[in-house]
Amino acid sequence: MPEQFVVPQFLDVESKIIGPITARQFIILLATLMLDFLVYRIFLSLLAVLGLGIPILAIGLIFAFAKVNGQPFHYIMLSMIQTFRKPFIRVWDKTVDDSQLKASIKNDGEVVAEPVEKKKKPIERSHLSDVSLIVNTGGAYSPDEEYGQ
């Protein structure tokens, strides 16, 4: 009888290390509290701590605990940064060939000719048996000879 193996489940769930807090959340909160402490030690003013420390704490809490569509907030921020850096979607226009593209570059970006659509020749009969015979005979069989073409 074959051995039974336990298949791991819930691989996308992060491990909790301190109560309900994951390691990622703990590191983010620790970094946030260190920044707040630096603000306190540098400015030594209650007004500065309230003005800078509270927004830093709020941003840290958002990064640690907020989720958008089930994804952690830092994934959303990374996606936003990538979108702002490269906002344009580039789509390959398959209808324009090289000669039309070169002509449009010479004419300051204006497309000169209308794109020509290439149509495939309709299939008259199945060529599967011909292809299998060509492969099996190592290329010695030619379907053109059989049908007198």
Molecular structure report:
Among the domains are: 16-85, no CATH class; 89-116, no CATH class. The chain is 51% helix and 6% strand. The chain has 6 helices and 4 strands. A two-stranded antiparallel sheet has the order 1-2. A two-stranded antiparallel sheet has the order 3-4. The chain is elongated, with a radius of gyration of 33 Å. The mean pLDDT is 81. It holds the Pfam family PrgI. Keywords: Membrane, Transmembrane, Transmembrane helix. The chain crosses the membrane at residues 46-66. This is PrgI family protein.
**CA-CA gap between termini:** 62 Å
Q: What is the C-alpha radius of gyration, as a whole number of Å?
A: 33 Å
Number of strands: 4
Succession of helices and strands: EEHHEEHHHH
Strand proportion: 5-15%
Arithmetic mean pLDDT:
81
Query: Strand sequence of the main sheet, in spatial order?
Result: 1-2
- The number of helical elements comes to 6
- State the major sheet: 2 strands, antiparallel
* Helicity, as a percent range: 40-55%
Residue runs with pLDDT of under 50 for 5 or more positions: none
Q: Decide which structural class fits the backbone.
A: mainly alpha
Bulk shape: elongated
InterPro entries: Uncharacterised_PrgI
Transmembrane segments: 46-66
Keywords: Membrane, Transmembrane, Transmembrane helix
Pfam families: PrgI
